[in-house]
Design brief:
Chain lengths: 339, 339
DNA sequence: CTGAAAGCGCTTACAG
DNA sequence: CTGAAAGCGCTTACAG
């Protein structure tokens, strides 16, 4: 690969002149510039971004830390991030954490070694090491679909899980349901807790008793949703509706009803959360709460670009709204208001 | 951020000594090394990968060009790539092409500017510019789920679409089907053509006439699969089975049967291709052809690492096998052998 | 074992 | 307008 020296030698000029020609500096004779550009073209020369980065003290690269890119939820966000960043001239260096804490740390180290200009992170483990590592980072960081540790003065972009969850439960209440079961994600996750809180608070605000037997913290898989539904059916008598804290659980619950001949929505209403692609399949048509996935990624990227441009370490967080997507898994409660 | 000079100054040593201490060079007094490491720790110094890369002439980064990361098919491959590369000490710089030719070109330019050590590419557009750009690249490149242009002496990792497709059609033949419809992807794609060829050749090899009305080149979406099925049902009389060239089309076809009360597999057998997650859903259970998605990504990464290590520009391509996954959408032809 | 010097491929004041 | 020189943050022969 030719270097700037080769170009200069070929032309019998100094490297400074060649440099000026490529960076369209005003102090250069048009004729000279033309000649330089021609030789550059001819020799197929591409300037080294490494050398430039050393001088300019920026690399035009940003790191994107994702738990699991093969999860459609994250890949949509990643796409949003990539689109706006690449339009802004940045390269995204993507790291798949496979939900392992050591990889998260390693990624941060790599980010400082490689002098990345900014970071968008969706960490699963915010332990001490991670937080302290982040604290001494000198570059802008935005959290995506995660909330930063309180000690970290960093912005986030997320959806209002609590509000979305309240809306889902309200919808069931509007349909006349009173005995509403809950199939939740692990309580260890922030998201899981927020959605659970929405369920609880909405029932309480309407003075509807919360039934301990109506709540199961199942997990994240189809199977766990299925088992959760099974448990609720066995233990929560009179239940006419279920709020599943995410679509995968909701679909698992639907599988249970399909296998056991319980008709949805006639005998059982079900609402999910996330609006995954597959919820719109003909056989599923799950009523659910949509999150603007790609849009979140975009917003995070825009926020980061702004921070990088203005060299700010923080900015206003963005809490986005969810939307209830009504499909075919909910109906008016047959027994009317039982209370 | 401190530099190596700061460390040296702090210790009253030369930068060479500091450098030797970090790179565990043998020519250094253990005591000195200890001191250096201590100050490094204390000042929280991280050496610049940029500076190192300039000297070593490698960046330990590789580019990954993907058409659309939000497609579960590609995201699984990307994950496989990322896993082995990051274990090998490489950073993957991921580029989402959004199926746009200009982005593909830009990505290649960026790869040479940034001195990436290697490239894994899944291009959608292999036009002249792209090929000539690739031809003058001095770094190893492996094609993933794509075949390189014949002028390019580069290896690929892909699945044998033709064979997989033959197997699917053979399976239907074994079940006694003779009038087998085909819902295909666009003929412009290599994959689409290969799978089509498998269908054609298998029928021919059994001396089964190929019915022009039994073939529709639908597209890639659920809707196009649905419409494709509709067309076949209207035009290809006596059809008892359908081979859909990918799962999305197959599911679209299934939606048609479900809506029109045609029972599967009793009245109609359907086989897909890809083994997407959702094909295993309770309501779908589509018999299909599985590709080792993550494994393909892994293999491509391993191939590339080998090429980078041995500074070879090419290597043996890898053609992986598919596997027929039998689920619930196929049954023995009711009419038996019509022929 | 340690330090001074050259060099990786550029850019940018500073002279002229 | 152009060139020589210094410098970005490192590593690596080369002396000593």
């Amino acid at each position: 690969m030719p270097t700037i020296k080769d170009i200069a030698k070929q032309l019998g000029m100094s490297v400074s002149t060649v440099s000026r020609a490529m960076n369209n500096h005003p102090d250069i004779k048009p004729e000279t510039k033309r000649k330089v550009l021609q030789v550059i073209e001819q020799l197929n020369y591409t300037p080294s971004a490494l050398a430039r980065s050393m001088i300019h003290r920026k690399t035009l690269s940003v790191g994107l830390m994702m738990p699991d890119i093969s999860d459609p939820f994250f890949s949509a966000m990643a796409q949003g991030v990539e689109e706006v960043l690449s339009d802004g001239g940045y390269q995204v260096v993507y790291g798949n954490m496979s939900r392992r804490p050591d990889k998260e740390l390693r990624f941060l180290v790599s980010a400082v070694e490689r002098k990345m200009d900014g970071l968008i992170v969706t960490p699963d483990f915010m332990d001490e090491d991670f937080v302290s590592m982040l604290k001494r980072l000198k570059i802008p960081v935005v959290f995506l679909r995660r909330r930063p540790h309180p000690e970290l003065n960093m912005p986030f972009v997320d959806v209002d899980h609590y509000k979305g969850s309240c809306r889902a439960v309200e919808y069931l209440l509007e349909l006349g349901h009173r005995r509403i079961g809950f199939i939740g994600m692990p309580e260890t996750s922030f998201t899981g807790r927020e959605r659970y809180r929405g369920y609880l608070d909405t029932l309480k605000s309407r003075n509807i008793p919360v039934a301990p037997h109506g709540i199961v913290h199942a997990g994240r898989t189809f199977k766990q949703g299925y088992q959760g539904m099974e448990k609720l059916m066995a233990e929560y008598s009179g239940m006419t509706a279920v709020f599943a804290a995410n679509d995968v659980l909701g679909i698992g619950a639907l599988e249970w009803t399909a296998k056991h001949g319980l008709s949805v929505p006639e005998q059982m209403s079900i609402v999910g959360f996330d609006n995954l692609e597959m919820t719109d399949l003909h056989w599923i048509k799950l009523t659910t709460v949509a999150q603007p996935r790609m849009e979140m990624g975009r917003k995070a990227a825009e926020l980061l670009m702004e921070m990088m441009k203005e060299e700010k370490q923080t900015a206003e967080s963005i809490l986005m709204d969810t939307e209830l997507v009504v499909r075919h898994t909910c109906a008016i409660a047959r027994e009317g208001i039982i209370s």
